[in-house]
């Protein structure tokens, strides 16, 4: 059943917000990492930045982490994909193995 032309498409906007909010979060988080940007920083930003830096490091060393990382950066997957336990565990293992060797 089609909606009336004078009725706002709230359902559409709620569904579109999932994509728009993810893109906005990625771009603003990257902007805040620039040295000339002074904020304001959202709650939890430092932890988010630290974790993001560790996942980026692991993505250079491991193809599986890299695939998820690139899927997020290229907006094939939602940024939450980087917080899946399997991704975080693999990234931690990769980084710990490098620390032990080096």
Give the overall average pLDDT.
88
Give the uncertain stretches in residue-range form.
none
Topology, number of strands: 0
Strand content: under 5%
Instruction: Give the N-to-C terminal Cα separation.
Output: 63 Å
Question: How much is the radius of gyration in Å?
Answer: 18 Å
Order of helices and strands: HHHH
In terms of quaternary structure, the protein is single chain
Sheet with the most strands?
Answer: none
What's the number of helices? 4
* Approximate helicity band: 55-70%
Structural class: mainly alpha
The coarse silhouette is: extended
Summarize the helices and strands and which ones pair or pack.
Elements: H1 10-32, H2 45-61, H3 63-73, H4 85-101
Helix pairs in contact: 2-3, 2-4
Supply the key terms:
102 residues; mainly alpha; 4 helices; extended
Descriptive notes:
There is one protein chain. By secondary structure, this protein is an all-alpha fold. The protein is 67% helix and 0% strand. It is extended, with a radius of gyration of 18 Å. The termini are far apart. The model has no long low-confidence stretch (mean pLDDT 88).
